Amino acid sequence: ESDTASEISFQFNKHKKTPSIGSHSSDMASVSSVSGSVLSVYSGDFGSVDAQGAVEFALDYDEKNREFQVHVSQCKDLAVVDEKKGRSDPYVKTYLLPDKARMGKRKTSVKKRTVNPVYNEVLRYKIEKMVLLIQKLNLSVWHNDPLGRNSFLGEIEVDLASWDWSNRKLNWYPLKPRSLSAVNGVDHRGVMNLSIKYVPPGSLGKMCPKNPPSGEVHIWVKDVKDLLQLRPSGVDSFVKCYVLPDTSKKSYQKTRVIKRDTNPVFNHTIVYDGFHTEDLKDACVELTVWDHEKLTNHFLGGIRLGLGTGLSYGISVDWMDSTQEEVAFWQEMMSAANEWIEGLLPLRSL
C-alpha cells in the first residue's frame, strides 16, 4: 500500500525516557511500513498583503486524452509585496478540492518584478470527467520568496459541477482574499465517534487475571459520519492508528475497510501497552481515516489526541498540535483511570 497525502517518513530518535510501547488489536491488522505525519497544503504568509487584482484563465476538458486543462493566461494589478523595491514575483498555483493532496498541486513559472505577469501556460490533470464534476478548482496567486515564506496574493474557487464546459474562452476573474476557514484549514471532513480509556499499571488489583504489568491505552473506534466522497462510486474507508513518537510497525494498527459508505461503522478496539502515567504527557494518539484503492490510499481526515504542547520528551515536534477539543478529551481520560471516555471529534486536515 502507498498513500498519496503529502505524507512524510518521520523516524523519531527516541529520548531515553520514551516508553517501549507495544500494541495489539481486537481485529487482525495487517502491518505497513508507511509512517509519518500528514502535512497541511496551506503553507505561506496570508496576512502580509491584501488581495487585489484579477486573473485571466480558461478551462477545458480533453475527452480524447481524459485530461482537465487550466489555461492560465495572465494577471493584472496584483498587490505589491516588497514595497521598498516596489516588486512582486508572482506565480499561479492550482488544486482540486476537496482532497488537495490526491491530485496534487500544479503551478506556473515565476514572473519576476511585475504586478502584471503574463504566463500563457496550461496546467494539466489526468482525471476522469465524472470524477472531475464532483471537484472544485482552487486557483491562487502567490509571491515567490526563495529565502522566506511565499505570500498569498489572492484566489478564486470554481465549482466544476456547475461550470459551463462550452465556454473555452479566456475570461477575467477578480482575486478574492482567503477566507478565515481556509487559513485555519477548517473544512468539514466528517466526525469520528470513539471512546478511550487508560488502565494504569497494577490498578486492577492482584486478584485480577488481566491486571496489566504496565499501563494500557484502549482506543475504541466506533464509527465516522459524513466522510468526504472523492469519487462517484463512494468511499472505501479504514482508520490507521499510531502512538507517536513511535512510528514503527509495532505502533501501526488499522481497522478493516468498510466499502461504499460515507458513514462507516468500524466498532474496532485497539490496545497499546507499555505506558506509564508520566508517558501520557509526551505521547500522542494519531487516528487518520483513508479512502482505500488498489494502488493508493487517499487521506480523508484525522485527529490527534494529546496535550498539544508542541513538545514530546523535551523535543519540539510538529505533530503535538492537538486542538482544544482533542486536548480536553485526552485530559479527561488522564483524570479518570479505568473509565471509558466517550467523544465525538471533528476530523481535520492535520
From TrEMBL:
<dbReference type="Pfam" id="PF00168">
    <property type="entry name" value="C2"/>
</dbReference>
<protein>
    <recommendedName>
        <fullName>Synaptotagmin-like protein 2</fullName>
    </recommendedName>
</protein>
<keyword id="KW-0472">Membrane</keyword>
<dbReference type="GO" id="GO:0006887">
    <property type="term" value="P:exocytosis"/>
</dbReference>
<dbReference type="GO" id="GO:0005886">
    <property type="term" value="C:plasma membrane"/>
</dbReference>
<dbReference type="GO" id="GO:0070382">
    <property type="term" value="C:exocytic vesicle"/>
</dbReference>
<dbReference type="InterPro" id="IPR035892">
    <property type="entry name" value="C2_domain_sf"/>
</dbReference>
<feature type="domain" description="C2">
    <location>
        <begin position="188"/>
        <end position="320"/>
    </location>
</feature>
<dbReference type="InterPro" id="IPR043567">
    <property type="entry name" value="SYTL1-5_C2B"/>
</dbReference>
<keyword id="KW-1003">Cell membrane</keyword>
<keyword id="KW-0268">Exocytosis</keyword>
<keyword id="KW-0677">Repeat</keyword>
<feature type="domain" description="C2">
    <location>
        <begin position="51"/>
        <end position="173"/>
    </location>
</feature>
<dbReference type="GO" id="GO:0042043">
    <property type="term" value="F:neurexin family protein binding"/>
</dbReference>
<dbReference type="InterPro" id="IPR000008">
    <property type="entry name" value="C2_dom"/>
</dbReference>
